[in-house]
User: Fold these one by one.
Assistant:
Number 1:
Amino acid sequence: MPSIRVFASAGVLALAIGAVYLFPTRKVSPTAMSDPYVALQYNMANTHDLYKSAYKTILPHLDNPPLDDLDNFLGYTRAWASSIVGHHDSEEAVLFPFLSKKVDFSKEIEQHVTVEKGLSEILKYIDRARAEPSTFEAAKLKNLVETLGGPLFEHLDQEVEDLAPEKLKVFTAEELTQAGKDLMVYVRAHSDKYVTLPFMRCHTPPELKETWPPFPWIVKRLVVPWILAPKNSGYWKYAPYDMS
Ligand SMILES: [Fe+2]
């Protein structure tokens, strides 16, 4: 009865993806996550570390690119760049307008412009190379990635520094909690679940995997590795850590 199997599979998929939206974010790390003044910086630092980790993974491959698996490698590199774009979009739409009411975030807003220009060039290069693999030159992509590296790392560190708990005391705990929720709502509505969540999971180091990202167990251990990651499984073999 193939039709029953199709409906059953579709049902499992819908149920599992629905869990991403329906399960509330849990407080999993009492020290870092239960204090909204600490949680914002903690989550931001861990998120930024994902991008740094992928950057450090991508660069050595560009010295000896996997030409027999180029589309997957470029897909992985694209997942890194597009994840940062999505992260920045969420900050510009939700977080920075909120913070800018009481804290000077003009430096970060300015840095986004430079970083986004670099990311846009990388994405354009990757898309062309995937469409016409014969045009791919690893040295050119390496140059684009390395050129972005300085401004990107500077920005990622600056932002975490400016989210220090003592700098956020101008907000109430309720305001910060609400801003964090608003940010998650935006991210859930705008990200590609087949890219963003697997990317996060396979760049989260083993010592953090039990508690971060602060998703329910079913999402981390079932939905991401078994439902979302397989769609682009060729990408994730380049990532530094396991998907589960
Ligand atoms: Fe950020």
Note: The two ends are 32 Å apart (CA to CA).
Number 2:
Amino acid sequence: MMLAPRKIPDGHSEQTQTVVLCEENREKAPTATEVLCRARIDRLGDTIYIECDYSTSVALECSRCLKPVTLPLAGTFTIICKETATGAPRRDETEEVDFFFDGDCEELDISAALADEIMTALPLKPLCCENCPGLATADAPRENSPKSSETESVDPRWNALKKFRKI
Ligand SMILES: [Zn+2]
């Protein structure tokens, strides 16, 4: 996500961006490509507070059946950016600051923070569905047989007719 610090006004502003993670950041979050970001920005002088909602979809592998599965992923993260005078040493007391920029900075790339956030939000054991039966074996087919699923999906209104059939 790119910010133009010089164009961010004092006070509150909002920005929405579709971020395409660059190669470097995709190493961290290889499963996400396009990420929709909505940032709420509050600027107080040389400090910019950003609260960013993101949503994307990630391509993973089901931890049970190993089939590829695409899952939605969304979250919020906050970062703090601070302007420093060009060449000025960065003070240790500003530990909470995630990104520094100087007055000449045209664009500030906060995608690395986004990639970190996505990486930590990835599910440890992704599942293709809640009831994933796991790997298919010859004895136990993965899918329910069509017959049983047909029975389940019979319209209950037919039950009334079944009674007649028995007579
Ligand atoms: Zn599965």
Note: The chain has one domain: 2-133.
